[in-house]
């Protein structure tokens, strides 16, 4: 494809970008933001000496999508285009790839890694890039990787370091950032503009053309009444009350209503408190109550049998982890009630009415004889698996010709997909081998399926950005957007709130666009200077927290049985990514499980086997083989408690530990563990 034209509304939104201004293009999903970006990239390449275009995405499958559907067809005849993601070997010599290419499409993490990596083959400078295109740029906030990249940019800008790339952001909605008033929403939009050092543009003259090109689906609320009786849920709540009595709740702690997200948040805090106070009874009871709470939430959204299986799977793993009376009580309670729970779960007269409503919604679309494609958005990976099982076993849905599969985030744990599985599922959906995706939020953004004519939001409470993204998946003519929810439930209230916030976003953007050029740039410069100062202050606070304790003064305890297993000084940081224990005595505390398989390959290491506590069987992490020689335990800090001079605490991520972790040295490791090699 040699050349191409834009619609007039697209021509309007790229005008300032063609004048080399930094802008954010705000167009709805399906409005052709990526096509507009390709047009800007083409003109940039034609008119800029030593042009280098970098396209950043936030999900791996979007690398292939942007390459195959947009950039390669329009630019490959005249320019060298490369795509790089976590599954590409090119990431290991990314700096060289950038040098040898005109256009690079990659995940943002790969560029960020290259910006902070000093190895010549991997390193990239912002000054190497002349045009930086940021897809789904509303994610440029807080500690997101887009914002980490743009902080480096803004720092160079404030220090007047040149040259810097032109910025082109793309978004269907910057959202309101949780704001519910116009003033606060304007502040949020200005902050996004400041983070991207860009003005936000949208079509003014050609809005009717855009509306015609991107029709909105018909919105339906498929409402069900609350089931009259729920003996399965009632029995779960009775079992939870027995645990409440057994655990002897602290007098200053009050749990909210069972089966709500608030209750789940309460028991998470309670588990942390139990660990911190060396109260294993409290910690374990809270851990089990979270599983019961999950089961109640599943019972409210999916089949009763799904909730029962969720609990059963949890207790299968717990049978190998019993070490004291608390474990025996909790395991015994489930086993004594298991038959009763199973019988109640199989009683169809008390089944969740939302499932029947979801079935009728699907049959209305797929049973009409018109070829259809749909997406069900559900909250968790577990729920997508349950819904797929239900679709495949439902005779009426199968007779309607529904061919379903799941689409969830990539990862290495249970219920995750590999990146190759993600790509294969999306490809099967595009070519018609599948006609129903059951997805978590991973498919809300960026997935390009114009012919999709049904979107169902099922058991979801999300913000206005996610709702707009999901709405934009239904792009076919006369498409349907359905919310399956309980009458008067939180999902319905949230959908109506999101509609209000969507309108508020438009008003906030219009308010920002009405600012004079001088006033706008004064405001975003002030915000940039404030963010720069706050970032440096937080870095100093983090350094102070880490220097408060020596690594040797910290003990790591198994989070399940509270056994001390390592010193903080045993932990080293490998390649700024992996936290490993280099003390050979650590082997006394763990046993090796099954092999870990990842769909990605890594230049310097490969995964080994899972590691579990020798006393209680809790999973701690997995081995890594580094540079084909050193086999070391790679630990997840969330599986441990930290005994510090200031008391016991827990952290979710290694960056939050209250001590400094030193970098790993392969030479020192070999010298210490294999002294014979040096004799």
Please sum up the structure shown.
The chain is of the alpha/beta class.
Q: What is the helical fraction, as a range of percent?
A: 40-55%
Total strand segments? 24
Reading side by side through the largest sheet, how are the strands ordered? 3-4-2-5-6-1-7
Return the CATH topology of the largest domain.
Rossmann fold
Task: Give me the secondary-structure topology.
Layout: H1 8-18, E1 23-26, H2 33-47, E2 53-57, H3 60-75, E3 81-84, H4 94-99, E4 103-107, H5 108-116, E5 131-134, H6 145-158, E6 166-171, H7 182-196, E7 199-201, H8 207-213, E8 218-224, H9 231-247, H10 261-276, H11 280-301, H12 304-318, H13 325-345, H14 353-366, E9 374-377, H15 381-393, H16 395-399, E10 404-407, H17 419-431, E11 436-439, E12 454-458, H18 464-471, E13 480-486, H19 490-513, H20 517-547, E14 555-558, E15 564-567, E16 571-574, E17 578-581, E18 590-595, E19 605-613, E20 619-626, E21 630-635, E22 640-644, E23 647-649, E24 662-663, H21 666-673
Parallel strand pairs: 1-6, 1-7, 2-4, 2-5, 3-4, 5-6, 8-13, 9-11, 9-12, 10-11, 12-13, 16-24
Antiparallel strand pairs: 14-15, 14-22, 16-17, 18-19, 19-20, 20-21, 22-23
Helix pairs in contact: 1-2, 2-3, 5-6, 7-19, 7-20, 9-11, 9-13, 10-11, 11-12, 12-13, 18-19
Report on the architecture of this protein.
The chain is α/β, with parallel strands linked by helices. It has 4 domains: 8-212, P-loop containing nucleotide triphosphate hydrolases (Rossmann fold), CATH 3.40.50.300; 215-221 and 352-500, P-loop containing nucleotide triphosphate hydrolases (Rossmann fold), CATH 3.40.50; 231-350, phosphoenolpyruvate carboxylase, domain 3, CATH 1.20.1320; 551-678, Metal Binding Protein, Guanine Nucleotide Exchange Factor, Chain A, CATH 2.170.150.30. It is 44% helix and 17% strand. The protein is built from 21 helices and 24 strands. A 7-stranded parallel beta sheet has the order 3-4-2-5-6-1-7. The chain has a 6-stranded parallel beta sheet with strand order 8-13-12-9-11-10, sandwiched between helices. A 4-stranded antiparallel beta sheet has the order 15-14-22-23, covered by helices on one side. A hairpin with a 2-residue loop joins strand 22 and strand 23 (647-649). Helix 12 packs antiparallel against helix 13. The protein is globular.
């Amino acid at each position: 494809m040699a050349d191409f034209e834009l619609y007039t509304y697209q021509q309007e939104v790229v005008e300032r970008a063609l004048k080399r201004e930094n802008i954010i293009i705000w167009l709805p999903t399906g409005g052709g933001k990526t096509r507009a970006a390709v047009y800007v990239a083409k003109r940039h390449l034609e008119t800029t000496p030593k042009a280098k275009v970098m396209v950043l995405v936030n999900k791996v499958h979007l690398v292939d999508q942007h390459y195959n559907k947009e950039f390669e067809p329009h630019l490959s005849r005249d320019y060298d285009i490369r795509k790089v993601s976590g599954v590409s070997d090119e990431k290991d010599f990314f700096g060289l790839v950038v040098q040898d290419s005109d256009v690079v499409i990659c995940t943002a993490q790969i560029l960020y890694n290259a910006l902070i990596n000093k190895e010549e083959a991997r390193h990239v400078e912002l000054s190497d890039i002349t045009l930086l295109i940021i897809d789904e740029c509303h994610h440029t906030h807080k500690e997101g990787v887009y914002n980490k990249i743009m902080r480096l940019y803004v720092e160079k800008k404030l220090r007047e370091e040149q040259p810097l790339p032109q910025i082109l952001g793309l978004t269907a909605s910057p959202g309101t950032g949780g704001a519910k008033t116009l003033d606060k929403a304007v502040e949020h939009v200005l902050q996004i503009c400041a983070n991207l050092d860009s003005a936000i543009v949208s079509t003014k003259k050609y809005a009717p053309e855009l509306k015609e090109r991107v029709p909105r689906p018909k919105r339906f609320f498929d409402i069900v009444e609350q089931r009259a009786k729920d003996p399965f849920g009632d029995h779960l709540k009775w079992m939870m009350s027995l645990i409440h009595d057994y655990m002897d709740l602290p007098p200053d702690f009050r749990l909210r209503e069972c089966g709500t997200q608030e209750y789940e948040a309460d028991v998470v805090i309670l588990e942390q408190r139990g660990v911190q106070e060396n109260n294993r009874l409290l910690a374990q009871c809270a851990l089990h109550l979270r599983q019961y709470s999950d089961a109640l939430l599943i019972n409210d959204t999916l089949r009763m049998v799904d909730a029962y299986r969720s609990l059963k799977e949890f207790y299968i793993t717990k049978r190998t982890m019993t070490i004291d009376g608390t474990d025996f009580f909790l395991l015994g309670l489930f086993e004594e009630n298991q038959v009763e729970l199973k019988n109640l779960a199989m009683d169809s007269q008390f089944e969740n009415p939302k499932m029947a409503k979801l079935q009728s919604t699907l049959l209305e679309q797929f049973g009409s004889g018109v070829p259809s494609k749909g997406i069900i958005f559900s909250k968790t990976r577990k729920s997508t698996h349950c819904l797929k099982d239900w679709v495949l076993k439902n005779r009426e849905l199968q007779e309607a010709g529904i061919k379903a599969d799941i689409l969830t985030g990539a990862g290495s744990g249970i219920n995750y997909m590999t990146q190759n599985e993600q790509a294969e599922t999306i490809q099967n959906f595009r070519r018609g081998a599948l006609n129903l995706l059951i997805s978590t939020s991973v498919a809300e953004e960026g997935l390009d399926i114009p012919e999709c004519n049904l979107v169902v939001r099922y058991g979801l409470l999300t913000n206005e950005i996610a709702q707009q993204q999901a709405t934009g998946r239904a792009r076919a003519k006369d498409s349907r957007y359905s919310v399956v929810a309980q009458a008067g439930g939180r999902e319905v209230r949230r959908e109506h709130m999101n509609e209000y916030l969507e309108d508020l976003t438009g008003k906030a953007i219009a308010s920002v666009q009405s600012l004079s050029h001088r006033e706008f740039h004064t405001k975003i410069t002030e915000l940039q200077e404030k963010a720069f100062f706050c970032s440096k202050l937080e870095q100093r606070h983090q350094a102070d927290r880490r220097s408060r304790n020596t690594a040797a003064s910290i003990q790591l305890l198994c989070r399940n049985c509270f056994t001390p297993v390592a010193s903080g000084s045993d932990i080293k940081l490998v390649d700024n990514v992996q936290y490993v224990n280099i003390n050979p005595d650590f082997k006394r505390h763990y046993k090796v499980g099954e092999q870990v398989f990842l769909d990605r390959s890594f230049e310097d290491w490969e995964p080994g086997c899972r590691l579990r506590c020798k006393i209680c069987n809790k999973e701690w992490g997995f081995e890594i083989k580094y540079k084909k020689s050193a086999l070391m335990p790679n630990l997840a800090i969330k599986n441990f408690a930290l005994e510090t001079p200031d008391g016991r605490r827990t952290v979710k991520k290694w960056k939050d530990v209250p001590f400094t972790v030193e970098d790993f040295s392969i030479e020192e490791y070999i010298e210490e563990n294999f002294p014979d090699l040096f004799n």
